[in-house]
Specification:
Layout: E1 3-10, H1 15-24, E2 30-34, E3 65-72, H2 77-89, E4 102-108, H3 110-120, E5 124-125, E6 130-134, E7 147-151, H4 163-175, E8 182-185, H5 191-199, E9 204-208, H6 211-222, E10 231-234, E11 245-251, H7 254-267, E12 268-280, H8 284-293, E13 296-304, E14 307-314
Function: Methylates ribosomal protein L11.
Keywords: Cytoplasm, Methyltransferase, Ribonucleoprotein, Ribosomal protein, S-adenosyl-L-methionine, Transferase
Main location: cytoplasm
């Protein structure tokens, strides 16, 4: 099957928002080329600290970013490009700089997609304990405390290497003690649910509003026996969910975290922890205010590049 790629040339700041626009319009996967991802890579360090590319050998953007969504060719593209352009233009209303904001489309062969992923995606140690490994790599555990997350990015929702995901993986490693119950909101590729099970979390429910993401998560979960009992389903945030969990995690945009906050409070046990990421620098204060407004206590903030993650907990009765 052939595909059509719709590329949005934008700013690094708008990468997550543009990715959301593309997937919400039916993209079955996205590819991100962000100049900031190369900013700290130095020639000669390739492989020594887990870098997945050699900046000397791989062409990349010198500034800004480009987010490419892949769509089946049976979609009417003139209308779709127009719709995406309109939504990108509106990002300014959310105080997000869309950069050039140029939207273009081109045909791409399915075989080319697979080649691209397998060429640039290799095992990567993302935290002290967690290593993300593509399905096609024959990778052996390097340390006794190393836990592997097997992923097949295919045409799905992320490789787990973006700063927002890595912040969430670090946050999970900080808070998990073993045996907790957890809800994963906006699961995407399922990477956070898989990581949680590898770290010792007990019952995990994972939800995403996109059916393609749910299928992707189920596929990746099947590659990781430790996560075999993760429940995955289609749902918008926590609408209609009434579960008392120990942990709720969400790697989504700040604008989507805001309506999730009161839902998370309702679905957490007293003292339960709420882990969120996908927050750009300019939105941190907004998310913090919303958390405190709904009686969350902020325990820790994590940062990677221009992205932030927050670890908070639901205040117990009598807690100041």
């Amino acid at each position: 099957m052939d595909w059509t790629a719709i590329k949005v040339v934008s700013s690094s700041e708008a990468v997550e928002a543009v990715s959301y626009i593309l997937t919400s319009e039916g993209a079955v996967g996205v590819q991100i080329d962000d100049a900031k991802d190369f900013a700290n890579l130095k020639p000669g360090r390739y492989g020594k600290h887990g870098e997945i590319i050699d900046p000397e050998k791989i062409p990349h953007r010198e500034s800004g970013a480009a987010v490419t969504g892949y769509f089946p060719q049976n979609i009417f593209f003139p209308e779709l490009v127009s719709t995406i352009q309109e939504k990108v233009n509106k990002l300014k209303e959310y105080q997000l700089d869309p950069g050039a904001g140029v939207v273009v489309s081109e045909a791409v062969n399915n075989k080319d997609w697979a080649t691209v992923w397998q060429k640039y995606y290799h095992p990567l140690r993302v935290t002290n304990q967690l290593t993300i490994v593509p399905q096609w790599e024959n990778y052996q555990q390097q340390a006794t405390n190393e836990k592997l997350i097997i992923l097949d990015p295919g045409m799905a929702f992320g490789t787990g290497t973006h700063p927002t995901t890595r912040l969430m993986l670090e946050a999970l490693e900080i808070v998990v003690r073993g045996g907790e119950s957890m809800i994963d909101v906006g699961t995407g590729s399922g990477v956070l649910s898989i990581a949680a099970k590898q770290l010792g979390v007990g019952k995990v429910e994972a939800y995403d509003v996109d059916e393609v993401a749910v299928r992707s998560a189920k596929k990746n979960i099947a590659l990781n026996p430790a996560a075999a009992d993760v429940k995955v389903g289609v749902n918008s945030l926590l609408d209609g969910i009434h579960t008392q969990a120990d942990l709720i995690v969400a790697n989504i945009l700040a604008e989507i975290i805001i309506p999730l906050v009161p839902q998370a409070f309702e679905n957490l046990k007293p003292g339960g922890q709420f882990l969120v990421s996908g927050i750009i620098k300019d939105k941190v204060a907004l998310v913090e205010q919303e958390l405190m407004k709904h009686h969350f206590v902020i325990d820790q903030k994590l940062r990677m590049k221009d992205w932030y993650g927050i670890i908070a907990h639901k205040s117990a009765e009598g807690e100041e």
